[in-house]
Structures are given as structure tokens and as C-alpha cells.
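Hi R.,

Here's the chain you asked about this morning:
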Amino acid sequence: MSEQGKNPQEGRKVPEVSGVDLARQALAAAREQARARGNAAGAKKGRQPGLRSGARADGRDPMPLMAALDRLRTERGWEMPMAVAGVMERWPEIVGPDIAAHCEPERYEDRELVVRCDSSAWAAQLKLLAPQLVARLNADLGQGTVRMIKVRGPGGGPPKGYGPWRAPGSKGPGDTYG
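And here is the predicted structure, written out as C-alpha cells:
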């Protein structure tokens, strides 16, 4: 035997390791490291180590579209705006066909519903009916969803943009002939 096969400190023989044995040891070490990494990664994601997707449902499985949309709506806090959007679609059912023919909701912000009327007479009428409409809307959507209704008359929109013949700060013909 050669001198390389002996351990000089103990005087015993150490078996020589072949290339195949080294490869097996390296493969076993790599598998152990991969198993340890897999267990650590599974613990981070909330999975049990070594658990694989199977016949039972888990969090990684695809979900129906409506369930995904409901989950998204809940996570983002869109319940109230979506409920108000539904009310805007059902506006004629809530206020009645006569009022709905002359007044329509424009937007909902900060628990205030802005309604535009086609005449000042209907705007005055809606201002008188606003407390009853707020109560009806809150009964439908949940208490405190609508705090008040702002009624806008006809026109009353933002001033028109500046054109080539408009002076900065003017509000239109009412400025000149007013």
C-alpha cells in the first residue's frame, strides 16, 4: 500500500475514496441543502414543509372570477363606492320616475352625493326632499353612507376655459353685460 492510504497519527488505514464515491457524497449533500432550503421557503409562505398541491384546495389554487373580484373589493376597501355606484344605476327606483326624469346623480365623494337637476324648480324641490332621500339611501346602503345631498341647478358648471378672446379671470358674458 502507499503512504497516502495511512493516517500517520493513528497508524490505521484510511480507505481511498474514488471519484464515484465523491460524486455520491456531493449529490447527497446537495440534496440535503435543497431540502433545507425548501423547508425554509415553505415556512415563509405559510405552507407546511414538503406539502404539495393535491386533490384538496389550498391558497395557491385558481379561484372563480367573482370570488377573486369579491376578495379584491374587500382588500381594497371598495365596498362603499361600489354600493353607491349600484344606487346610481337604480336611481329611478329609489327616487321615483318623476324626479329621476329631471334630476340625476353626478358623483359621490366624502359621503356626499352630488345631484344635478335640469331646472331651478326641480333643484328647489329636491332640496326640500333631500332629508328623506338621505334616510332612504342610508337604509339601502347602511347607516352613515350618505351624509348629505348637494343639489346643483342647471348650468352651474365650472367656467369655460380660456380662449383666444377671453381675458384671464373673466367668467364670460355675465362679466361684461352683467
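One quick note: Residues 113 and 149 are 5 Å apart (CA to CA).

Cheers,
M.
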